[in-house]
Amino acid sequence: MTKELKDQRFLVTGASRGIGKAIALDLAQHGAKVCMLATSLGNLEETGAAISAMGGEFLPMAGDITDPATAQAAVSAMVEAWGGVDGLVANAGITSDNLLLRMTPEQFQKVVDTNLNGSFHFLKAVTKPMMRQKAGRVVLIGSVVGTTGNPGQVNYCAAKAALHGMARSAALELGSRGITVNVVAPGFIQTDMTGELPEQARQAMITKIALGRPGNPEDIAGITRFLLGPSGGYVTGQVMLVDGGLSLG
Question: Which residues contact 23 (CB under 8 A, 6 or more apart)?
């Protein structure tokens, strides 16, 4: 285990699978203590076992990210167990795709509540301990479609675009306290979520990627660690597109 992030304390939402799991494992591998959040503790068993196997330290938490109390409980648990919070990765999110004319208000609101409001609750919850420390790193997981748009995803694109704006505003507010706030915006990444796409749609997407292949969760974990680590200390308010060139058109 390398020690680049030795004893740093990070909170990762949606850590049971996909991008969140890859980020949690990558941080632990580099010496960090990781508080992992998912909808149930059982979903975190595999990630926790992997961290334990590498000799890392973790704190599992379960809850609904649309409830502000979930964010506060996770932060309070970290402060009690480890004395503070050095970084947040707000990764948890959902999709509920439909064409605009068919999308229900419930579909729209559910995605906004989870992908935007959920990230806001966690950002707000970590702000107080980070301000006391006069240091902290926040990475919000956005999406390339927050910049480019995507048919059938007006709810998802709206939430992610708003997330990008929220990060820039928070970066301006918190920079004087030594807190950075950035967005990592993935493109087409191999996860359970994208695995549900029909093969024809998958291949059509791949043809638009300059590198000619989908990304993997580890591609996102690496740049996230950079922004959370010592080399990312002078980067804030940025939206980092990690999309293999998909956004180039």
Answer: 12, 15, 89, 91, 217, 220, 221, 224, 225
